[in-house]
Write a structure and sequence with these properties.
alpha+beta; cAMP-dependent Protein Kinase, Chain A; 7 helices; about 15% strand
Length: about 260
């Protein structure tokens, strides 16, 4: 059986129609000529209710999608002017695949913790940091041979042949200033030399492809490329141009899950 509202008068805005036939209830916003279907037509009567919307609020479901469960408190304005109407909602997945995904995320997290512990136990990160730091300071003609020798030197000088970086110094041959602070001035981007990559003085004629960049800067330029075209040749009174301002964002693409300013 189909029940259709063909005409209505004096109906308040955003009214909801509810019709019950036997044990079946259908409810929807009141619209003309849209039938509500019921499985039985053997009833002697039906019940018709008309409701108006008391309040409305959007509830984000990001945590529900990620965790499979979410609890939210929703506050709605009271049309009678009294205290706000407060609803506590609990969202919970019934799909077993969600629990499986959650378990997989926990497994990946534990694997990451185990990997970090391994790197910390053998001080691998300190070793690599010292090696890269020394590599950029010395800039050898054959970087691969330099890195192999650097690691071999640490390997033979450590007890039991374990690869271990020096604990007291960030690197063995890093230049230091008089106050024993590491001198980073010889490293590109940290001293007088600019980091290689996007030019720091003049912008290219055409804006580079930013399709794989993830930053606020990239979003702004992708949404309005005219900003680049209008500012690429302009300079401040001190001679600073657009290239200098956006170089960091151009050189660092970022990550979709970790958006930086750029």
């Amino acid at each position: 059986m189909d029940i259709t509202v063909t005409d209505a008068s004096n109906v308040p805005e955003k009214a909801y129609l509810s019709i019950r036939v036997g044990e079946t209830r259908r409810q929807a916003p009141l619209r003309l000529n849209e039938p509500l279907r019921f499985p039985s037509d053997n009833q002697e009567s039906c019940k018709v209710d008309l409701f108006t919307q008391v309040g409305s609020q959007q509830v984000p479901l990001r945590r529900f999608k990620d965790q499979g469960e979410q609890t939210e408190s929703v506050a709605l304005e009271n049309p009678a002017g009294g205290p706000k109407i407060v609803l506590s909602l609990n969202f919970k997945h019934t799909d077993p695949r969600v629990k499986q995904k959650k378990s997989q995320r926990q497994t990946r997290h534990q694997a990451a913790l185990n990997a970090k512990k391994y790197l910390d136990d053998f001080q691998v990160q300190q070793l690599l940091q010292g090696m890269v730091q020394q590599l950029l300071t010395d800039r050898p003609a054959d970087p691969l041979t330099f890195m192999a020798g650097y690691i071999q030197e640490r390997n033979t000088s450590s007890p039991n042949g374990a690869v271990e970086a020096p604990k007291s110094e960030p690197a063995v041959h890093v230049q230091k200033k008089e106050n024993d602070a590491v001198d980073y001035s010889a490293m590109p981007g940290l001293g007088d030399d600019e980091f290689p990559g996007f030019p720091h003085e003049d912008c290219p004629a055409d804006m580079p492809d930013l399709s794989e960049h993830h930053s606020v800067m990239a979003d702004v330029l992708k949404a309005n490329p005219d900003i680049y075209n209008n500012l690429k040749e302009k300079k401040t009174p001190n001679g600073v141009g657009l290239a200098k301002c956006i170089k960091t964002g151009m050189d660092n693409k970022g990550h979709p899950m970790i958006k930086t300013v750029g």
